[in-house]
């Protein structure tokens, strides 16, 4: 999630995880929670009006839509950017709501507001639609005009408007899926659409979409660009904007990282300029992802992943084989590690066998 132009924050997500950890089993509260969420939805206040989408730079999967044309429909607006792991883990729910309720009066609109410059490129957004099975309308918000019109500050963020164009509910960050669906059903009933039962959807989460293992998550999102990184441990620190030879210290403590080889550390990313090079990171999480891409469009950069000096085996992610081999061919999030239990502190290494890669941010789950 993002607050203004700061690093996408995780406290809200950890708060949700803590609440889930101390709560009684879901099964024992199913009936009570159904009644509670229905009551909460019935008393939803009016939070504002559905803002204009006129600032969108393009539309995908649809002709341009307006609040006026959507009158009479319940509208769910989902702010996202395709490399955001927090959004990816909410997408199975948004996708399922769009599919289940589209014939019952719900319109889902995704607003794609980029974090990184490469996310403005339609040729990067279109493959993401296929990867995450986004079939509903998407307003491409490359100038953040729709973001500003909604006064939004987060990825992901969901706003639900009733059939009169009044925003009645919002959800920032992951979680509250049952509550959000209860709101959708209530507003559809208010609008006079029949056939909305209380049975919840069963999301189909794949790969990076799978919910985080909150109980074992002790590593937070970390950017590799000099402006926003934490725990950088290569001796001598970072020389911003200029190529320099870096090395890995003898010991890395938890949530610290280092570069090895000839890299340029820029404000927003670390770029491998020549030869081969490594990124080494000590982390504690089930999943490890890295947002990265080739510096030149159409290029392919080979890499090899190691855990504690060994091939990952059955701990490999979807973008790596058991021997740790993979290739960077697109600017996107790559899932490199998904380890089985027990989860513990691990030393991650990614060695790029070719130059010409840009690495942006590590995320964990």
Report on this model:
- The protein is of the alpha+beta class.
- The chain has 2 domains: 11-208, Glutaredoxin; 214-364, Jelly Rolls, CATH 2.60.120.260.
- The chain has helices at 11-22, 26-42, 85-101, 122-131, 145-149, 177-190, and strands at 48-49, 58-60, 74-80, 106-112, 138-140, 157-161, 166-172, 222-223, 243-246, 257-265, 270-283, 287-294, 301-307, 325-328, 332-338, 346-352, 357-364.
- Strands 8, 9, 10, 11, 12, 13, 14, 15, 16 and 17 form a 10-stranded antiparallel beta sheet that branches. A 7-stranded mixed beta sheet has the order 1-7-6-3-4-5-2, with helices on one face.
- Helix 2 packs parallel to helix 6.
- The longest helix is centred in the N-terminal third of the chain and has 17 residues, at 26-42.
- The two termini are 14 Å apart.
Instruction: Count the E strands.
Output: 17
Q: What sequence of helices (H) and strands (E) makes up the elements?
A: HHEEEHEHEHEEHEEEEEEEEEE
- Main sheet summary: 10 strands, antiparallel
The CATH architecture of the largest domain would be 3-Layer(aba) Sandwich
Can you give the helix content as a percent range?
10-25%
Rounded mean pLDDT score:
89
- In total, the number of domains comes to 2
How many DSSP helices?
6
* Class computed from helices, strands and strand pairing: alpha+beta
Name the CATH homologous superfamily of the largest domain: Glutaredoxin
Query: What would the principal axes of the Cα set say about the shape?
Result: elongated
CATH topology of the largest domain: Glutaredoxin
Low-confidence stretches: 1-41
What proportion of the residues form beta strands (DSSP E)? Answer: 25-35%
User: What is the CA-CA span between the terminal residues?
Assistant: 14 Å
What is the level 1 CATH name of the largest domain?
Alpha Beta
**Gyration radius, to the nearest Å?**
22 Å
């Amino acid at each position: 999630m993002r607050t203004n132009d700061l690093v996408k924050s995780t406290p809200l997500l950890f708060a949700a995880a803590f609440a889930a950890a101390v709560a009684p089993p879901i099964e024992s509260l199913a009936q009570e929670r159904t009644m509670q969420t229905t009551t909460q939805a019935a008393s939803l206040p009016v939070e504002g009006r559905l803002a204009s989408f006129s600032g969108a730079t393009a539309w995908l999967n649809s002709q341009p839509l307006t609040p006026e044309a959507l009158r009479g429909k319940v509208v769910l607006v989902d702010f996202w950017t395709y490399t955001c792991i927090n959004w990816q883990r909410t997408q199975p729910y948004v996708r399922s709501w769009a599919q289940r309720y589209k014939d019952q009066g719900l319109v889902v609109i995704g607003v794609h507001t980029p974090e990184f410059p490469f996310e403005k490129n339609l040729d990067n957004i279109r493959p993401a639609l296929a990867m995450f099975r986004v079939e509903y309308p998407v307003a491409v918000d490359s100038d953040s005009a729709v973001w500003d019109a909604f006064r939004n500050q987060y990825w992901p963020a969901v706003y639900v408007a009733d059939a009169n164009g009044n925003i009645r509910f919002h959800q920032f960050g992951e979680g509250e899926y049952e509550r959000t669906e209860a709101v959708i059903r209530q507003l559809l009933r208010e609008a006079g659409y029949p056939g909305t039962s209380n049975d919840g959807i069963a999301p189909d989460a794949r790969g990076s979409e799978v919910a985080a293992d909150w109980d074992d998550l002790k590593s937070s999102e970390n950017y590799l660009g000099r402006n926003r990184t934490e725990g950088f441990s290569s001796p001598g620190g970072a020389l911003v904007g200029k190529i320099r030879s870096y090395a890995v210290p003898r010991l890395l403590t938890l949530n610290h990282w280092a570069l090895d080889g000839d890299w340029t550390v820029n404000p927003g990313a670390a770029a491998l300029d020549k030869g081969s090079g490594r990124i080494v990171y000590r982390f504690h999480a089930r999943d490890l992802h890295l947002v990265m891409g080739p510096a030149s469009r159409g290029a392919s950069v080979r890499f090899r992943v190691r855990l504690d000096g060994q091939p990952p085996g059955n701990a490999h992610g979807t973008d790596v084989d058991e021997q740790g081999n993979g290739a960077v061919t697109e600017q996107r999030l790559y899932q490199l590690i998904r380890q089985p239990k027990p989860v513990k502190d691990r030393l991650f290494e990614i060695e790029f066998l070719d130059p010409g890669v840009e690495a942006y941010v590590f995320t964990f789950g």
